[in-house]
Amino acid sequence: MSAVPETGATRATRSFPRVGVRATRKATIIAFFAWLFAVFDYIMFGTLLPQIAGSFGWTDATAALVSTLVSVGTAVIALAVGPIVDRIGRRKGMILTVSGTAVASALSAATPGAGYLIGVRSLGGLGLSEQAVNATYLNELYAVTDDEVIKRRRGLVYSLVQGGWPLGVLLASAWVAIFLPLIGWRGCFLLAVFPAALIALMRRGLRESPQFELELKLRALRKEGKTAEAAELARSYGVDDQPAAPLAAIFRGQALRNTLVLGFAWFINWFGIQLFSVLGTSVLTEGKHVSFENSLVLLIVVNAVGYLGYIAHGFLGDRLGRRNVIAFGWIISGILFALMLTVASGTVSVVVLYSLGMFFLVGPYAAMLFYMGECYDTTCRATGTGFLNALSQPGAIVAGAIVTGMLASGSTWGHAALLVGAVGTFVSGFVMFGARKAPLLQG
Length: 443
Description:
With 443 residues, this protein is mainly α. It has helices spanning 21-56, 60-88, 90-108, 114-122, 124-128, 130-143, 148-152, 154-162, 164-191, 193-202, 210-223, 227-236, 246-249, 255-278, 280-287, 292-320, 322-342, 347-362, 365-374, 381-390, 392-408, 413-432. The longest helix has 36 residues, at 21-56. It is globular and about 65 Å long.
């Protein structure tokens, strides 16, 4: 049976080794928990930021500046992860990202001040890159799996994995609500080390993707000077023989348009993520005058609804096309958050509009991450998804800088969240219409 070629490749005469049902489902489950705990660590910092700021006597503007500088460091780390994973492999890359999450949590517990915290939390870029590495690995695994259920519904299944974002936010909120009164914010970070470390150990048992195993063979042949043999082997599997740097590959040919459009969409959309997800407690406590304790409970409800958004958008993406589902979701989300900030006055209306806004803000990422993996070939897939994923942090940096400036000049959190978060989310939806429809990877 011949393999169907990847994007832009010649017709294949050989097929990749198949991945069994059990191995596919094991990898999927571990990927879900790895992403959940990476999000848990990442969001816990934002959730605890008011408490950290209080313990050090920071003003709102100082706390916002710290958050912005953390985003700068996170971006630097996240940008490096994609090329590293395309070099060392998906399996080792996944161990690296979740191990980084454990280290970031452990070192955060020992924070003596702002400078140290900024440096340590920058390691969160490894955890944030978890979703890009997951998308790369599972795209390749699902393309050659014997699990026909997953193969037919790969977008929906991946939505369950990517749904670790709202569940991670939910878990962080519940974790802080339970443990903060007992062990303080330092203890909350310290306890978070153990689940991430456990996932890192579990990943040692996963196999490398067949596509990357082929890439390793091609590299070995080229290193031995057997370039013609490497080219012939690549053609036999229906893949491009591209020894060029993967970072250059995502800026040429058919990949270029989606790299630019999706990158800009990530950048703008992260305005909304930064305000309503990462800094949700600050928006609720300062913008809508909700108590810190009630804001934690509200975020639990909101992100439970957000998880349903992942499933819905993953399901619809398989049927209606991922690009359009992402675009319309973000447009609707921007409108709902604007209504929450301007119209909602009671607890019920805030909860309903915030929940629906989160449903359409984070849900499209179930389609987005899988869509990104479909846009690139094996040689540059991790670099492409990692690069786009890292562009979220420049978005967070710019959003944080604007919010910091607005707060310092006397504006309110509610006004900042409206102009930066709601408007940014709305615009990002329209940007998505400029992307090409991605070809579906097949085995």
